């Protein structure tokens, strides 16, 4: 089968397209014929050697796919191996792709929407009368966050790195959108959904209303700064962290329930995955460069 192999960490050129043996499913697994694979920021961290729970090398990156298994159209989160024509996936990690949805949409759905929905429903109080600030609102998790917060009845404001991306956030439902250099001057929020971190995380604490919460769900803008409890206490605010990988291992039933709820919302038109760009499997390095350059909107995908 065609696949993309990472033998050693480094720049995008380390992603090597080639021919590899097809995986053999273990008991409880199914072979998924991949029709689209999500390219996520954690894939970039793995390639760069910066992911905390990095897989052993060599490895085939990719944890999110859509495709066909035993005649079913499915979407799945995998333990790796998604940048390929086929991947073995635990049966419990397979979900039905809604009728009428494309494989590209399917590969853009699970990780982004779970990373927004679970924090906004389990770790913060979000509803009518709540203001939610969504950072990187034009990206995969951010665009999902805008939609989820709106569905929960919140007023949504957003940040993005360019005027084009800020318009895109407004089209998704954000009432206002700002740049990273000026949002702190204009925004007061009850909840902040932050897949950026770095300096943005630090500045976001200052915009929280009393009893507000900042949700750290990623580190696309740089590693988290240390936050003194004194600052949280002094402002009457809280900070929560979200890591889907550990949650899948510790509370799989919670993730499964959330995914089922999200799929229902998608089927009823309340949410929609945003496909921003697609690349052939052999151009995985180009997909990584697009994300590193922050030139994408929505989800970036590989299509075998």
Question: Given the structure, what is the number of helices?
Answer: 11
Number of domains: 2
Task: Label the CATH architecture of the largest domain.
Answer: Alpha-Beta Complex
What value does the average pLDDT take? 95
Query: What is the CATH topology of the largest domain?
Result: Quinone Oxidoreductase, Chain A, domain 1
Q: What would you call the structural class? A: alpha/beta
Largest beta-sheet details: 7 strands, mixed
Number of strands: 15
**Coarse shape:** globular
What is the percent of helical residues?
A: 25-40%
Can you give a write-up of this model?
- This protein has 11 helices and 15 strands.
- It is an alpha/beta fold and 304 residues long.
- The chain folds into 2 domains: 2-109 and 273-303, Medium-chain alcohol dehydrogenases, catalytic domain (Quinone Oxidoreductase, Chain A, domain 1); 112-244, Rossmann fold.
- The strands form 3 sheets. Strands 3, 4, 5, 6, 7, 14 and 15 form a 7-stranded mixed beta sheet that branches.
- It is globular and about 55 Å long.
Which helices and strands appear, and what pairs or packs with what?
Layout: E1 2-6, E2 15-19, E3 29-39, H1 41-48, E4 64-69, E5 72-77, E6 86-90, E7 94-96, H2 103-107, H3 110-123, E8 131-134, H4 140-151, E9 155-159, H5 163-172, E10 176-178, H6 183-186, E11 189-194, H7 199-205, E12 208-216, H8 229-235, E13 238-241, H9 244-250, H10 252-267, E14 275-280, H11 284-292, E15 299-303
Parallel strand pairs: 8-9, 8-11, 9-10, 11-12, 12-13, 14-15
Antiparallel strand pairs: 1-2, 3-4, 3-6, 3-15, 4-5, 5-7
Helix pairs in contact: 3-4, 3-10, 9-10
């Amino acid at each position: 089968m065609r696949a993309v192999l990472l033998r050693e960490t480094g720049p995008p050129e380390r992603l090597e397209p080639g021919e590899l043996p097809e995986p053999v499913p273990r008991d409880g697994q199914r072979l998924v014929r991949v029709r689209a694979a999500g390219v996520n920021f954690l894939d970039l961290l793995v390639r760069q050697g910066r992911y905390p729970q990095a897989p052993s090398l060599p490895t085939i990156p990719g944890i999110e796919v859509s495709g066909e298994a035993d005649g079913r159209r499915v979407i799945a989160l995998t333990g790796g191996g998604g940048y390929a024509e086929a991947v073995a996936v635990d049966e419990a990690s397979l979900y039905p792709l809604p009728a009428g949805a494309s494989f590209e949409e399917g590969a853009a759905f699970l990780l982004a929407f779970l990373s927004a929905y679970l924090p906004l429903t389990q770790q913060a109080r979000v509803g009518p009368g709540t203001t939610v600030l969504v950072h990187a609102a034009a990206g995969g998790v951010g665009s999902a966050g805008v939609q989820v917060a709106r569905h929960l009845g919140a007023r949504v404001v957003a940040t993005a790195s360019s005027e084009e991306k800020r318009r895109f956030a407004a089209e998704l439902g954000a009432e206002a959108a700002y740049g990273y250099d000026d949002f702190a001057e204009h925004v007061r929020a009850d909840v902040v959904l932050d897949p950026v971190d770095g300096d943005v995380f630090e500045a976001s604490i200052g915009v929280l209303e009393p009893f507000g919460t900042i949700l750290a769900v990623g580190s696309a803008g740089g590693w988290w700064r240390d936050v003194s409890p004194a600052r949280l206490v002094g402002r009457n605010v809280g900070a929560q962290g979200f890591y889907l990988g550990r949650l899948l291992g510790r509370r799989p039933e919670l993730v499964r329930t959330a995914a089922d709820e999200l799929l229902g919302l998608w089927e009823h038109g309340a949410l929609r995955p945003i496909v921003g760009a697609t690349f052939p499997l052999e151009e995985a390095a180009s997909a990584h460069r697009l994300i590193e350059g922050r030139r994408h909107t929505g989800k970036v995908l590989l299509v075998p």
